[in-house]
Amino acid sequence: MAAAIEFRHASFRYREVSVLMDVSLRVAEGECVAMIGPNGGGKSTLLKLALGLLKPDSGSIQVFDHAPHTGCRLIGYVPQHLHFDPKFPITCMEVVLMGRLDRLPWWGRYPAADREAARETFRRVGLSGLEERPFAALSGGQKQRILIARALCTEPRLLLLDEPTANVDLTVEERFVELLEELRQKVTIVLVTHDLGLVERLTDQVICVNRRVHRHRVSDLDGETLRQIYSAELREQHFAPCDHEVSGPGTPPA
Amino acid sequence: MNAFLQEVLTPGSIVQLATLASLIASVNFGVVGTYVVARRITYIAAAIAHSVLAGIGFAVFARAHFGWDWCAPVLGAIVAAVISAIIIGYVSLYLREREDTIISVVWAVGMSAGLLFLYYSPGFNGNLESFLVGSILYIAPADLWIMGALGLVVVLLCLFFYNPLMAVCFDEEFARLRGVNVPLYYMLLLILTSLSVVLLVQLAGIVLAIALIVLPAAAGLHATGKLWHAMCLATVLAMIQSTLGIAWSYTVEIPAGPAIILLSAASYLAVFGWKWWQSLRAASSLPIRS
After folding, report:
1. Which of A224, B10, B188, B262 is deepest in the core (most CB within 10 A)?
2. How do A188-192 and A32-36 pair as beta strands?
3. Does some domain include residue A37?
4. Boundaries of domain holding A106
5. Is A44:A80 a contact under the CB 8 Å cutoff?
């Protein structure tokens, strides 16, 4: 199967500090993968490299067999932080339609088909009726879902979600999990999260990022063992970088 | 007031030209100002406005020393504004951490160069004040055509690129991922801002121009939650304010620029107060749960 994301010996340093070292990673099309690791371990950097927002110092990265800066059009990206002006005068519909910016015709107005597609994504994330509401007036959880709708509106082959449940309450999270369960039938998903419960419900493929990257398959393990292993590993990672060998899919964690 | 109305309706009168000029520029205040305020780059617009003096000064200097009679101050102003916009744009796109420093430098160097050029221009009659606080009552019919053309180009570009410009202002990173050429649009926005600033400098002068870009747009943005609604509202507000301001200045013989700006500030405060009162009313009408 084609690779949605493929890193080959990629390294990235930020001002002399090595953020990611010799990363080789493959996410096949159709997979649903969670990405975990401590804060500052390089998860966001890894996403930005895949999106072409950063360039690796060495090694190569491909997204659907394209260079990241062109392949990124096939990615629906849901950022972790709303690092834009929270009072910016924009409606939810306008935010979601940003997902169609790359096919904006020369006269600069979104065609009716794009608006219909945008309305459809409002339905999918359960926010129909909020189309004309100012984005600034929404709650944190609703904003998050609008950003997911925007990512879906791009008709992505790969959905990259950076800690989408960090700021939402349990009911919202529950609906979010249902949405992801539905979506993973159709698109490749890479989900960055600290929430091991969420990982458990969605996938058995976990990428551990802490300067180095390795991958585990955990389907053979029961829930309790899984929780123990990953919480122990996460705790361990806060003190020491992962220095064990890069393991391929199918290798259970030691 | 009647005298003002009579003057406005007299073809070719000073007051009519001034009013027409301010109505044309109002569309710019509204459209470009809204982007500037929403993107929070008013300090960039202010720096560009001040650096315009370098261009004006150079034009005056070139006329006096090289006999370049074609080199009108407004032409110098346009060139200086666009150059400052490009410098600031480049720095804020590629050397982000030094952005505020460069803005201050462009601001100060532009003004200093302009003052020196004027100092060394023998023909200059020393009426620096008209550049600093504006001389709307000295608008010539030819200026009106230049302003009209400039205004039209700016507004058409802003409307044509409404969606990508809004996306770049709102979420640069996502726009980039959708294949939008973010540096190009950001530069376009700064250049459109710089051209509008030149229009405003004609009306209100270097020091006051920034207030005209900011105040109507801020009022518009405060009153509505949609970018193009804010643009329309800001335009209408600017038109009313500048016409009333000119009427006021003509009737009681005060400078027009400050009169327009005080009216703009008053209407901004009025919008602010109205929204505040509305939110108080909304809060008090909430059902009280026991």
Report:
1. B188
2. parallel
3. no
4. 83-158
5. yes
**Residues B220/B34, Cβ–Cβ less than 8 Å:** yes
CATH label, B13-273, candidates 3.20.20.70, 1.10.3470.10, 3.40.50.2000, 3.40.50.300: 1.10.3470.10
The runs of H, that is alpha helices, within chain A are: 43-51, 68-71, 92-97, 112-124, 140-153, 170-183, 196-202, 223-237
Query: Does the distance separating the beta carbons of B177 and A108 come in below 8 Å?
Result: no
The answer to whether residue A117 sits within a structural domain is: yes
What number is the average pLDDT over the span B134-145? 74
Six token digits for residue A167: 């700021």
- The Cα of A201 is separated from the nearest Cα of chain B by a number of Å equal to 29
Number of domains comprising chain A: 1
Asked whether residue A230 is domain-assigned, the answer is: no
Q: What DSSP character marks residue A134?
A: B
Does residue B38 sit at the A interface (CB-CB below 8 Å)?
yes
Cα of B176 to nearest chain A Cα, Å: 8
Average pLDDT of the residues of chain A: 80
Is residue B80 predicted with pLDDT exceeding 90? yes
- Other C-beta atoms closer than 10 Å to the C-beta of A138 total 17
B170 interfacial to chain A (CB closer than 8 Å): yes
Residue with the bigger pLDDT between B207 and B193: it is B193
Per-residue pLDDT tens over the stretch A106-149: 888 899 999 999 999 999 888 889 989 988 888 878 888 899 89
The string of pLDDT tens digits covering residues A10-60 is 999 888 888 888 889 999 988 899 888 877 788 888 999 999 988 999 999
Is residue A154 situated within a structural domain? yes
> What pLDDT band is residue B287 in, cutting at 50, 70 and 90?
low
User: Residue ranges of the domains in chain B?
Assistant: 13-273
Dmax (CA) of chain B: 83
Query: Angle at CA B81, nearest 5°, toward B78 and B82?
Result: 85
Q: How many Å separate Cα B85 from the centre of its chain?
A: 14
Q: Is the pLDDT of residue A226 over 60?
A: no
Using beta carbons and an 8 Å cutoff, which residues of A are at the interface with B? 51-53, 72-73, 75, 77, 79, 83-85, 88-91, 94-95, 97-102, 104, 107-110, 134, 136-137, 150, 154
